[in-house]
Amino acid sequence: MASAADLIELMLSGLVSGLVIGLAALAITLVFGIARFANAATGDVMTIGAYAALMATGATGSLALGGLAGILAGALTGMGSYLLVFRKLEGRTSVAALLASIGVGFVLRACLGVAFGHGQQVFQLPLVRPFRLYDIRIQPNDLKIAAAALITLALVFVVLHLTPVGRRMRAVADDPMLARVSGIAPKSVMLALWAIAGATSGIAGILIGIKTVVSPEMGWEMLLPAFAAAILGGIGHPVGAVLAGVLLGVVQELATPLVGFTYKIALAFVVLLVVLLVRPRGLFGRIEGVR
Amino acid sequence: MDAYLTAIAIVTGIYVLLALGLNLQYGLTGLINFGHVGFFCVGAYTTAILTTKGVSMLVSFPLAALLALAAAWPLGMVSIRLREDYFAIVSLGFSEVVRLIATSERWLTNGVQGIPGIPKLFSDLPGGQAQAFAVLALLVVLNLAAIAAMWRIVHSPFGRMLEAIRDNEEAVKALGKSPAGFKIQVLLLGAALAGLAGAVYAHYIGYVSPDQFIPLVTFQVWMAIIMGGVGRISGALVGAILLMLFLEGSRFLRDVLPFVSEVAMASVRLGVVGLALILFTIYRPEGLMGSHKRP
After folding, report:
1. Chain B residues touching residue A89 (CB < 8 angstroms)
2. Which residue in A35, B152, B168, B188 has a CA-CA distance of 20 to 30 Å to A262?
3. Statement: residue B161 has pLDDT above 80
4. Higher pLDDT, A91 or B221
């Protein structure tokens, strides 16, 4: 039987991984809200960010510089995927874009597989002893990961709500035609969107890489939980995506002693299914005619 | 050389069965099934588990199709009414869960090691080559039966209804028909075909393990039907042959480029499948043989 301290430790760990799921879900929900399709390449953009950060950290010895490289790589990959693929599919069904995004993900993963092989790599970070607070072990690294995730979220929301480009993005999300007749150029908005979504995915990838390991498949494995969180939070609803990610992370960690490690992903699937059945607009989403 | 060609033909035949099922679902009905490999996996494991315990293949083959169908039924019941891209994600998740179960339930599936020693088909025939020809003949018969069934479906009121659902679901609803019922039937049919394909595959390869049933398989079949032409029976055939040419061609490429490792080649294959998905979706959504513009 797990003690109260163990439970709290699990919850804290879930909070941290939940924040990271929330970041990925935020990237998915932004693209869904504005470009209007489910981007299955999100996971692999995360992996790109993680590898870029890993390489840059190894080359410079500074995790901060590595992180910047990872963010930049994520943003560039996002913008590249828009310019090369998704821009050509505007006006087509969301299914065409979804299918193409699977292809984009495969191509990204293939490049990483060729460049870095399929082995697992880790960030070479100094080991820090966890400290205790009322009998609860706290990993300083977890605190840093959570802080980085929170700062990222704050920045994204600042951009969305306090800058002109964020206002334009929200206008397009609300009503693309109205935005267009109001003189908002779609291309610059879309580029900003893909840069933000890519950078957010990149950060999520780096944080997962720091918390666990870096491998070409790491992002793909996060895709299902991220989709589940995006839909649970109400698709196109940034705050909802983050909260749902945290909720999902905590539930996954708490359930791990009961269902075992491998069924974590299955749990995300069950959550996804239940949400779609019971409340397809998610916890915070607007009511839509179709689901 | 003969043995090699027969082997390729057998694997192509398995892919044609998979492509026919997906073509019925996506090409004819517009159902976005991203979890095809899940049903393939259920079929393969069903016959693998049963026959290694001594059950006759005459029993295990129908059961493989039936269990794949039974796995599709709850999926269809809960998610067929969802928006098409949500269904795509849910079905993708379904196939991943099937693979997780195959990985985790060691008492049933022997976990990551998988199940070796699955009895070969037609093992009383003398010589490996005769056996391989018999497997090929079986696949040809199965495929012809499936094609005949497809042909009947396409030219029946049922088939016209499916095409109507694909082209305009709202109009079908307005006419007082329920698209969901038809879609579930199509999902089940395609799943049963995939289960059958899985059974042939398991007995031909001789062992099953979870890493044979990754989502890449699903998208190889997608690549086949998109290349061949969505919504056409000939498209499934041509697409599966093209897919096989590509998969085998990449093996020859490795003989030409020996410095490329097998692991790197696997990545290259993944990348080419991805590239084909992107390019065909953008530039030729109707495929090489197709007539119908989708998606």
Report:
1. 281-282
2. B188
3. yes
4. B221
Distance in angstroms (rounded) separating the CA atoms of residues B145 and B143: 5
For residue B173, the tally of other CB atoms under 10 A from its CB is: 13
Does the CB of B130 have a partner CB in chain A at under 8 Å?
no
CB crowding A136-167: b at 16 or more within 10 Å, else e = bbebebbebbbebbeebbeebeebbeeeebbe
Q: What is the pTM of this model?
A: 0.89
In chain A the beta strands, taken as DSSP E runs, fall at: 131-133, 136-138
Residue A279 scores a pLDDT above 80 = no
Distance from CA of A151 to the nearest CA of B (A): 30
- The rounded percent of chain B whose pLDDT value lies above 70 is 96
CA B106 to chain centre: 25
Q: Are B33 and B22 in contact (CB under 8 A)?
A: yes
- Confidence at residue B290, expressed as pLDDT on a 0 to 100 scale: 58
Q: A4-13: long-range contacts at Cβ-Cβ below 8 A with a sequence spacing of 24 or more?
A: A5/A134, A5/A135, A5/A136, A7/A254, A8/A136, A9/A136, A9/A137, A10/A253, A10/A254, A10/A256, A10/A257, A11/A250, A11/A253, A11/A254, A12/A136, A12/A138, A12/A142, A13/A142, A13/A253
What pLDDT shows up at residue B3?
81
CB contact under 8 A, B219 and A268: no
